[in-house]
Write a structure and sequence with these properties.
81% helix; homodimer; mainly alpha
Amino acid sequence: MYVEKPMVVFLDKLASRSPEPGGGSASALVGAVGAALVSMVANLTLGKEKYAGVQDRIEALLRDSEGLRAELQTLIQRDTEVYADVSEAYKLPRDTEEQKAERAARIQEALKKATEVPFRIAEKCLEVARLSETAAEIGNVGAVSDAGVAVLLAEAAAQSAALNVRINVNSIEDREFAESRWGRIEEILEESARLRDSVLRLTYEKLG
Amino acid sequence: MYVEKPMVVFLDKLASRSPEPGGGSASALVGAVGAALVSMVANLTLGKEKYAGVQDRIEALLRDSEGLRAELQTLIQRDTEVYADVSEAYKLPRDTEEQKAERAARIQEALKKATEVPFRIAEKCLEVARLSETAAEIGNVGAVSDAGVAVLLAEAAAQSAALNVRINVNSIEDREFAESRWGRIEEILEESARLRDSVLRLTYEKLG
C-alpha cells in the first residue's frame, strides 16, 4: 500500500518510467489531501465556544470528510491494480481467431473496470469540493484559507480523474457505457468548477 | 522530514487540529506531484526512436522537473518551520513597553520569512506548469494525460500557495514588501491559469 510507504517512495515511482502509479493515483492522493484539509478546518472548529451553534454540523462535516479521505486513500492503490489488469489483457496471445476474440473481450472488460476507478475518484472529489464549501461557510474563520486550498485541490483532482476516464472511454466499444460515464463526468466538472469559483471568492472575502 | 515518513502520517497530521502541516505544505506536496508527472512523461519519451528528434529537449525537461520536485519536497518541510517561528513570536511576553516593541518586531520579521515560503512554492509551481506545456507538446503522446494532470495540479498548487501568501501579507506592516509580493503573485496566477487552459485544451485534442 503506497499510503503506508514513505511519501518519497510514491513520488519517485510516479516520476519513473514505470506505468504505475500514474495520473489516476495522483488525482486520488490530491483529493485525499483536500479531504484532510476539510477535516483540519472541522477539527479547529470543534469545541470552540464561538462556533457553539454549528457543532452538530461540524461533527457531521468531519465524519463525511474523514470517510471520503479513507475512500480516496484506498483509490490511490486501486488505480494501480486495475491498470495492471488492462496491461495483462493486452499481453494475451492472439495467434488464433479464438484467442483474438478472447483477448478483445478481456481488454474490454478490463477497460470498463479501469474506467470505474477514476470515475469514482471524480465523484468523491466533487463531494470533497461540496464539503469545502460548508467548511468555508461555517468553519473557524482562522482556518478559512485551508477550506480554500481544499476546494482548489478537489477541483483539480476531479479534472485530473476526468482525463483518466477519457483515456479509457475512448477505447471502450460499448458506446452506451462510455457515453453514460462521460456524460456524468461533464456534470461533475461543471459543478466542481462552480464550487471552486464560489468557495475561492468566499475565502478571499473572509481573508480580507 | 515528512517526505521520509509514511504518506498516511502526513495526511493524518494534516487532518488533525495541529496547525502544522497546513495549506502551505499541502500546496508544496501537490506541486511536487505535478513535477513528478512531468518527469514521468519525460522518462517515457527518453530513448524512444519515434521521439529521436527531441531527445536533447527531453533530457533538459527531466533535469528541470526533477530539480523542481526536489525543491518542492524541501518546501513541504520548510513551511512547517516558518509557521512555528511565527507562533513562537506571538507567544513572546508583552508586559512592558520594551517587550511589546520587541515582540511586534519579531512577529513582523517572522511573518516576512513565513511569506517567502508559499511565495517560492507559487513560483516553483508556475515553473512546473510551464514544463507541463513542453511535456504535452513534445512528450510521448501515450502519456499526454499525465502532462494534463501535471498542469492541473501545478495551477491548483500555485493558487493554494497564493492563499497562504495572502494570509501573511495582510498582517505585514511593511506595505512596500507586502505589495511587491502580492503583485508578483497576481502575475503568477494569471500565467498559471493561461497555461492550465492551453495545456488542458492540447491534452484533450491529443487524446481525441
